[in-house]
Amino acid sequence: MESIEGRRGMPRTKINRTAHKGLWQKPTIINNVETLANVPIIFQKGVEWFRNIGTEKSPGTKVFALGGKIENTGLVEIPMGMTLREIVYDIGGGIPNGKEFKAVQTGGPSGGCIPAEYLDVPVDFESLGALGSIMGSGGMVVMDENNCMVDIARFFLDFTVEESCGKCVPCREGTKRMLEILERITEGKGEEGDIERLESLSETISSASLCGLGQSAANPVITTLKYFRHEYEAHIRDKKCPAGACQALLEYYITDKCIGCTKCARNCPVSCIDGKVKERHVIDTDKCIKCGNCMTVCPVGAVIKR
């Protein structure tokens, strides 16, 4: 600490000069690689050339890490304003195995989840923000019909809890409480009022956290509650996972397609499947440990999750 003296030699204030120094105790500007990569070509081709790409308010290009349930994964550079549909289907090649597109999460772990009804929305700062998502770190994770949106929210919030620096209470404690609620819901232990608790916590964390991590941490929860609220309600009230993804809420069932080959019964580790040869078999759900062996070995696809 160094004193700055007034005219009469009296200490007037104190300034921590080291707080204003960066790398090697020198003034430092911090940018990410993508920003720095744009600088040389803007110098070469000019600002107007750069602004002619993209949209008026969001000029230039953006790099996304395209992943999840999509045929072509990897880094893609797109002009701002390209629609989600063009990215997912024209560049990404669509959803594997003929599955239906369900949602896409943009911006990294703190981004929002955008449902299929907004596939034709342009990807720019304003449009993503209006849907409750962000451009963020350029992540773009595609989800199909087999993804549970409650579990997706839990997955991303788990990351945020680990990354929180712990300085401010809203982020440090609020995200943990939200994660606990989401874990209970996906385990079939959700209660009436949990949705309202998540909404209240989301509002507090978003408005009271000190930094961008905390302020955006609730985005996956906020957007999945907004666009997929029925999935939360099914988990809490019916103790069912509509997507069949939450293991604790699954129930394996043998349909009329069963040919009575006995493969499922012979491969069940807890012997909870009964039935005669060439007759439909039945699973004792009380004994079933939900390992999925029966579904794996069934030659005719007679075993389903519901």
Task: Give an overview in words.
- With 306 residues, this protein is of the alpha+beta class.
- It folds into three domains: 55-144, Ubiquitin-like (UB roll); 149-238, Up-down Bundle (de novo design (two linked rop proteins)), CATH 1.20.1440.230; 251-305, Alpha-Beta Plaits, CATH 3.30.70.
- Helices cover 37% and strands 16% of the residues.
- It has twelve helices and eleven strands.
- It has helices at 33-45, 47-51, 84-91, 125-130, 149-163, 169-186, 194-208, 212-216, 219-227, 229-238, 263-267, 293-297, and strands at residues 2-5, 11-15, 61-68, 74-79, 101-106, 113-115, 139-144, 252-254, 273-274, 282-283, 303-305.
- The strands form four sheets. It has a five-stranded mixed β-sheet. A two-stranded antiparallel sheet has the order 1-2.
- α5 packs antiparallel against α6, α5 runs antiparallel to α9 (219-227) and α7 crosses α9.
Q: What secondary-structure arrangement, pairings included, does this model have?
A:
Elements: E1 2-5, E2 11-15, H1 33-45, H2 47-51, E3 61-68, E4 74-79, H3 84-91, E5 101-106, E6 113-115, H4 125-130, E7 139-144, H5 149-163, H6 169-186, H7 194-208, H8 212-216, H9 219-227, H10 229-238, E8 252-254, H11 263-267, E9 273-274, E10 282-283, H12 293-297, E11 303-305
Parallel strand pairs: 3-7
Antiparallel strand pairs: 1-2, 3-4, 5-6, 5-7, 8-11, 9-10
Helix pairs in contact: 5-6, 5-9, 6-7, 7-9
